[in-house]
Amino acid sequence: MRKTDKFPVEGPNALWQIYQTVSKWKAVRNFLFIQITRYSPSLKLKNWIYRHVLGMKVGENTAFALMVMVDVFFPEYINIGHNTIIGYNTTILAHEYLIKEYRLGEVRIGSHVMVGANSTILPGVTIGDYAIIGAGTVVHKDVAPHSFVAGNPLQVIREGRMDKTD
What's the pTM? Predict the structure, then answer.
């Protein structure tokens, strides 16, 4: 189960009311810096921007591939451990704007995690240490440590430690 806080809205859908929940200037600043990180080949520059400009918690030796898209409005809700790889064109969301409400949820990605290309991680999920997320997966619920998951909907392929003797 995802852990999100729900905020009801009245009138037009929540996305039409976005600038009542987040500053336009924050959105523009974050958008520009995220575009730099998406195209930059420098892992050090990306991590510096994520940590010092966007307010994300990013562990040592964590690597973001090209075109990774982190949440524009609430990147500070994203926490990623050490030595993790976020694959090409992955999206990490900390918000959802719906018709009658919006939701915010912290995203926690553990250490030594591999997230395959073109995956989407939804708000409020926790991915445990040493988990493997297959390419193209929609992570809509928590993933246990040492698990291998893939697909849409997400399916557990294998749980527990994956030793070389398997």
Answer: 0.95
